[in-house]
Amino acid sequence: MSTPEDFPALKKDIKHRMDQAAEVLRKEFAGLRTGRAHASLLDPVTVEAYGQPMPLNQVATIGVPEPRMLTATVWDKGMVKAVEKAIRDSGLGLNPAVDGTTLRIPIPALNEERRQELTKVAGKYTEEARVAIRNVRRHGMDSLKKMEKDGHISEDEHHRHADEVQKLTDQSIKHLDEMLAHKEQEIMQV
C-alpha cells in the first residue's frame, strides 16, 4: 500500500525550496551596503546606453582594487558621462571621480545611525526568509497529511516523515540565523 518514492521526492522538493529562500536572502544581503566595497553594490545601477536602459555591468567592467574603492572601466569612451550620471543618480550615495575611461568610486564610511538602520533591514529580510521556510514546512506537512489520508503512508510513517521535515526546517532556520549574525557583524565593523 505504501509507496516509498513519494516521500523522498517531497523531501527533496522541500529542501530545494528552503535552500532557495536562503539564496534569496543571500542576494538581498549582497545589496546591503556595509561600508566595504563589493562589485554587487552596483548591480541595481542602470545606464541609458544606445537609447535604452542597460545594467552597468553590460557597459563597464566593475573592479574592487581596495576594500573601500570600486572602479568601473567603461568600454565605450562616449558612455563615460552617462555611466557617471547613472552612478550619481542611483540613490546609493556614491560620488564617482572620472579618470579617462575609468571611474573611481570611493565607498564612504557608514555612520552609527545608518549601521543600526541596516541591521534592522537585514533582520527584516531574515524574517521574510524564515516565513518563507515555515510556509514550505506547512506545505510539506499538508502533503504528508494528504498522503496518510489517501492511504499512501501509515500513521507511523507520517510521524517519522514529519520529524524529518521539522529537522530540515530547524536546520534551514539555523542557517538563516548564522547568515544574519555574520551580516550584522559585517555591518557593525568600523
UniProtKB/TrEMBL annotation:
| Gene Ontology BP annotations | cytoplasmic translational termination
Query: Does the record carry Protein biosynthesis as a key word?
Result: yes
Please report the stretch or stretches of sequence annotated as the Ribosome recycling factor domain.
25-188
State the compartments where it is located: Cytoplasm
Q: Name one GO cellular component term.
A: cytosol
Q: Which UniProt keywords apply?
A: Cytoplasm, Protein biosynthesis
Molecular function (GO) terms for this protein are: ribosomal large subunit binding
Q: Name one Pfam family in it.
A: RRF
Source organism, top-level taxon: Bacteria
Q: Does the record bear Lyase in its keywords?
A: no
Q: Which family does it belong to?
A: Belongs to the RRF family.
The role this protein plays is: Responsible for the release of ribosomes from messenger RNA at the termination of protein biosynthesis. May increase the efficiency of translation by recycling ribosomes from one round of translation to another.
> Mind telling me what this protein is named?
Ribosome-recycling factor
Organism the protein comes from:
Roseospirillum parvum
